[in-house]
Amino acid sequence: MPPPLLRGPLLLAFIGALAACTARGDIAKPIPTALIPAPQEPQRLVVVLPGRADSLEVLRRSGIAEAIHGSWPDADVLLAELTMPYYIEGNAPQRLHEEVIAPARQRGYREVWLSGASLGGMGSVMYDRAYPGQVDGIVLLAPYLGDEAILREITDAGGATSWDPGPPQPVGTDNWQREMWRHLRSWADNPEHTRNVWLAYGERDRLRSAMPLLTPLLRADHVLVRPGGHAWRVWSPALGEALQAASEESSGTR
Predict the structure, then answer these.
(1) Does residue 2 lie within any of the structural domains?
(2) What is the pTM of this model?
(3) Domain carrying residue 93
(4) Least packed by Cβ within 10 Å: which of 30, 62, 231, 235?
(5) Is position 3 within any domain?
(6) From start to end of the chain, where are the E strands?
């Protein structure tokens, strides 16, 4: 069982760092989902995780499903309302796997991709850490990558590949950001893993200062910087672009 992600005093710091309100959720119930069927015979699935204040209705209005279908008309889209309470509970990656990803795999999709915005981007990274190889690709949309202290520590060390995270530890309330970055750092030594990892964010995104630490761990042409800020009007078309480019790469036309 993956260890806790957010509990106790760390939760207060995390909420303060993200600011503003968060979407609610009843952790006593399964993660709410909404399936947007593919216009064609479905072969693939893209699971979309929300930002901190997003609900299923926000995701429906975001244009994300339309952007995915514009690039992959054979992809079902599964919106998953994995909101802050599930992270607070401490086992968001496990619940995402057991309630969403694993059942999708059992339905026989040829590919299952995961994408998340902001809080959901962080959740996507933590899922990849807990369940490596369980999705075929990841598109991170302006992911939350930790507070100023950890980002400054990595920057002062000369970047993620030069940074020494210390001995590995079980994820807990005071070290989950360090362990998340330990996992991200491992991407530099595993280009096969990152061949289907993409990053997209707006050039005025409020979380953009963290992105230069992540981009060296990815292929340069897998990083999409587009006009705009921290919003779905940037992320939705960028996700469509990433999926189209991924298809071109896999077919050898890019």
Answers:
(1) no
(2) 0.90
(3) 8-251
(4) 30
(5) no
(6) 33-36, 44-49, 75-80, 111-117, 137-141, 197-202, 223-226
